[in-house]
Give the backbone structure.
Amino acid sequence: MSPAQRWSSPNERLPGHERILSASYDGLLRIWNMSSQVTVTSPSAGNGGHLSSVKAAKFVSPSQVASSGTDRTVRLWKYREASDDSPAVMSPQIELHSHKASVDSIAVHQPSSRILSASADHTVCLWSTRKSDAPAVPESSLSAHSSLGAKRRKVGPAVSTAQRGCLSILKSHTAPVSSVIFAPNDSTVAYSASWDHGLKTWDLPASTSIDTRSTSHALLSLVAIPDLNLVAAGTSARHITLVDPRASATKIVAMTLRGHTNAVVSLAIDPNNAYGLASGSHDGTCRIWDLRSTKTDKDGQVGQSMYTIGRESIGGALRISGDGVKVFGVLWDPDIGIVSAGEDKSVQINRGQCADPVAPS
């Protein structure tokens, strides 16, 4: 199972109506209620769904969902809640084509109707969520996708879904791009993280990379910490690197967080505390950090986690390697708590300020 996400507009918080969106390697999206029930599942490949594993999913609005996966597409879905006389429905809306490899991360900026995607083809793409704003798909992109679909699509009824291309392609990375986010205070700026060890800042209107911060390890996940003017990046080297992306910054790494025993693939900020951070790792745990709790050593400012959350599927036990319980995504919601999804095929919720810690780090 891939990362979970929820719609979190303050105007949409209705007690009992919270929903969690999850994406899975089985190629399906699911929306859950707080009673651990799946209220709706996306159509299969033969009915307009993804052709293979889904790697990322986000709510665009209460009635629209975006997803991406190893079938090289970003997809938009129309979502309708259940009513007294009809069940919940998730139906294909638009297929977005341009990437030539797996699309592993997406970011949504709802006010501007824009989506960013990060791909293993070394590029970032900018898209519109509105069909009328999006350009036609290049023939080369459709040909590549048709070839993939012919190999993997199961027999099923024909579904006609609008197909569109991207607004722009951002090229500068030299290895797979693992994560991309909009700058929290300026939707014309984006940050991307890559296996090439680089954190790039992009001018979206100009489709140009305006800054690159080179680190020592492959970067796998990103989250902005706006109150501290920092970007946190999870790494293949088991730690989290905090970078000040501003041009005025005098050093690349502002802080390093250590404690995980495998790759750090997902990050989320505490919605109630500017210094709080949650991380998800292939070691099978989520860790909770307080960025004020640091010490200085030969590598500069270093922090250790305050709490560790194990997977309930194995009774909260900790496995150094994370075999069978790798965490793929984490979200910190002010109402629900810390939501994580993992290799154990489950979405887990930990509530409370300390997220029901398994053990101090």
